[in-house]
Amino acid sequence: MKIILTHEVSGLGAAGDVVDVKDGYARNYLVPRGFAIRWTKGGEKDVAQIRRARKIHEIATIEQANEIKARLEGTKVRLAVRSGDAGRLFGSVTPADIASAIKSAGGPDVDKRRVELGSPIKTLGSHQVSVRLHPEVAAKLGVEVVAA
Q1: Cα dist. 12→3, 20, 75, 104 in Å?
Q2: Which residues, 6 or more positions from 47, have their beta carbon under 8 angstroms from its beta carbon?
Q3: CA 141/CA 105 separation, integer angstroms
Q4: Which of 13, 2, 4, 1 is nearest to 46 (CA)?
């Protein structure tokens, strides 16, 4: 099935790309979650609009991405959350929580969709988080989760 991506999908493409995927993947995952729309002749006009919006939000050059990476890796991020007695959290830490904690710690403004968690953060302590700034540049960020 031919689809138009509306968001960046790891391993598939960036917003505005027209890709072919298996029917079930598109119908059951990408389209319902809003990551893609079905390709039509009329939908081809949307591609230009999506690409324009992507250019506004994306980091243009590798040099710019490396500057932001240096600023991110120099930022100390502490996140205060509610937890139980054994150090387990009530819920988990989301990429949106991490993006807002980076901004409040004085770091650069990061889109929550660029924050990649290997597994959900459900315990107190220090955790490593990856922030994909550019297809070739990713920053490793230490996040300290503390009890509120």
Answers
A1: 11, 9, 30, 32
A2: 4, 16, 18
A3: 13
A4: 4
Cα 88 off chain centre by: 24
Alpha-carbon gap, residue 98 to 129, rounded angstroms? 9
| Tens-digit pLDDT profile for residues 31-68 | 999 999 898 887 777 777 777 776 665 666 778 888 88
Residue 57 confidence (pLDDT): 59
Which parts of the chain are beta strand (E)?
2-5, 18-20, 36-38, 77-81, 88-93, 115-116, 121-123, 125-134, 137-147
| 121-123 vs 125-134, strand pairing mode | unpaired
Query: Closest by alpha carbon to 145, among 107, 66, 67, 91?
Result: 91
Location of structure tokens 């119908």:
27
In whole angstroms, give the CA distance from residue 39 to residue 18: 8
